[in-house]
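Section 3.1: Structural characterization of target chains.
Under the original work plan, the team committed to producing a structural model for every single-chain target entering the pipeline before any wet-lab resources were allocated. The record below documents one such target. The sequence was received from the expression subgroup and is listed exactly as submitted; it comprises 344 residues.
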Amino acid sequence: MKQELATLHAKALQELDDVQDTKRLGEWRVAYLGKKSELTTLSKQMGQLDAQTRPLFGQLLNERRQALEGAFTSKRESIEAAEQNARLAAETIDITLPGRHRDVGAVHPISRVIRDIEDIFLGMGFMIADGPEVETDRYNFEMLNLPKDHPARDMQDTFYITEELLMRTHTSPMQVRTMEQMHPHAPIKVIVPGRVYRRDEDDATHSHAFTQIEGLVVDKGIRMSDLKGVLEAFAKALFGEHQRVRLRPSYFPFTEPSAEVDLVCVHCQGHGCRVCKDTGWIEILGAGMVHPRVLDMAGYDSSIYSGFAFGMGPERIAMLKYGITDIRQLYQNDLRLLRQFAKV
């Protein structure tokens, strides 16, 4: 058995030398160190030896097993190192190759303006609300003091889905929805950014689908001076401390009195230019005191509560802020325009 052990040991070492990969190394381990290996078979035959020979053979058997395990460990480390080096060599990056250019994205100018406006009004204590783009005639018109036979409906060309469902023409329906949700609590201070739809011909200053931001404040003792103060603070925050606003009388069915709001021309600083038609002022939004009928229909007693509302177009503001002359450029996904805002 001693000679048989020596032959087995020599054979195992010779085969181990020929092993070059992890798979064959595992097979070698099973063959010579596993539970069914010849080495294990020899250890089970020790019971056949006499009492004097058995301890000596057992010691020799352990020495041979330890020697094979040591050789196995050394071979495994060698193979693993070689395989790792081969992987690293295959994955080597050729740093002499030119890098691949990747375009850097940017926030769209309309989204940028909406975020700026939201930040300004959040700082004044307003909440941000959202409403459905598919609206009912009741909320889009009737609850805003525009009954079905009202001539002012002709001011807005509407996409009707059914007689009672339509694509909202403004975000003003959220005036009523917000008051109904908040009733009877006050004050209400909310802005509503969102997409609106009208049957307009697309040109340099109009689009059939555009964004609008509605603002609403309702409380006891709200006055026109509060409206002007809020809008002037907004204009200064967005366009600079030099800004001023002026209110010109106008008409909106859901506000009374109503006004068009102008600010000092951002191009000529009020001196007069082609953009402002030499007036020094540019119209930016519409506003007014919430009509008493709108308050009453929403559940607020107009003899106790008053409020103001305003609506603005982020596209219009983006065009003024960034010097864009054609509103269609904001919707055409022209990378020549959009890349400019990656640097803003």
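The beta strands are 127-128, 134-136, 165-167, 188-197, 209-219, 245-252, 255-264, 281-290, 306-312.
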